[in-house]
Amino acid sequence: QVQLVESGGGLVQAGGSLRLSCAASGRFFSINTMGWNRQAPGKQRELVAHISSGGISNYADSVKGRFTISRDNAKNMVYLQMNSLEPEDTAVYYCNAVITRRTPVAIEQNEYWGQGTQVTVSS
Predict the structure, then answer these.
(1) What does the DSSP 8-state code read for residue 86?
(2) Residues 6 or more apart from 110 whose CB is under 8 A from it?
């Protein structure tokens, strides 16, 4: 019932930029935190950045100063502006969100994940 859909991935040369977008859709009461994670082949998924409903953000050390996370609460979207991209940034990037939903019997708070978008940075 709740879906997260990422877009904006692609191929880019080292030093270039990409802007990822994630749209949340479905029935829900509110979106709490939203974030981006990434996973490279053979590696574990790692946190890239997350942002609270109030706009407080946090970043992995590897992307600080290069990536910027933002959100538009009115549009239920979160973005990741990626600058100064490096080959090491190559991965599938996943959007995630903690969402509060109202059901006929309860109010639930769960974490949801998108399908991911590929980011490839060439040397």
Answers:
(1) -
(2) 2, 98, 99, 101
Cα atoms in the Cβ-side hemisphere of radius 13 Å centred on 21:
7
| pLDDT at residue 27, rounded to an integer | 86
Q: How confident is the model at residue 10 (pLDDT cuts 50, 70, 90)?
A: very high
Kindly report the backbone phi and psi dihedral angles of residue 115, in degrees, each rounded to the nearest multiple of 5, phi listed first. -85, -15
CA distance 89 to 119: 8
Beta carbons of 112 and 27 less than 8 angstroms apart: no
Candidates 12, 22, 24; CA nearest to 90 is 12
What is the number of other CB atoms lying within 10 angstroms of the CB of residue 59?
Answer: 18
d(CA 18, CA 48): 15
